[in-house]
Amino acid sequence: MQRRIVESSALNSLGYDSSARILEVEFRDSGGVWQYFGFPSTAYKRFISSDSLGHYFVTKIKGKYPELRVK
């Protein structure tokens, strides 16, 4: 999945596959890459346009979707 670099103190890059509804997040501190399943495109649009990607991730994504570490 292609990811794009983002401006965030917590996240390094984000990718989204709308047909599979998979969000992919690369974390800045660990370099870990995680995928989140069943992630709606409307939520992705809100996520990437939020004032703080890290805050949005912690409050709206983490622990709320099935996840898998891929790297």
Explain what the structure shows.
The chain is α+β, with helices and mostly antiparallel strands. The protein has one domain (4-69). It contains two helices and five strands. It has helices at residues 41-48, 53-61; strands spanning 4-5, 11-17, 22-27, 33-37, 67-69. A five-stranded antiparallel β-sheet has the order 1-2-3-4-5, covered by helices on one side. Strand 1 (4-5) and strand 2 (11-17) form a beta hairpin. The chain is globular, with a radius of gyration of 11 Å. It starts with a strand and ends with a strand. The mean pLDDT is 96.
Total number of helices: 2
- Total beta strands: 5
> What characteristic shape results from the CA principal axes?
globular
H/E series, N to C?
EEEEHHE
Radius of gyration, rounded?
Answer: 11 Å
Please indicate the count of domains.
1
Q: What is the helix content?
A: 10-25%
Side-by-side strand order of the widest sheet: 1-2-3-4-5
List low-confidence stretches: none
Q: What is the beta-strand fraction?
A: 25-35%
Multimeric status of the protein:
single chain
Distance between the first and last residues' Cα: 13 Å
User: What structural class is derived from the secondary structure elements?
Assistant: alpha+beta
Task: Please give the largest β-sheet.
Answer: 5 strands, antiparallel
Give the mean pLDDT.
Answer: 96
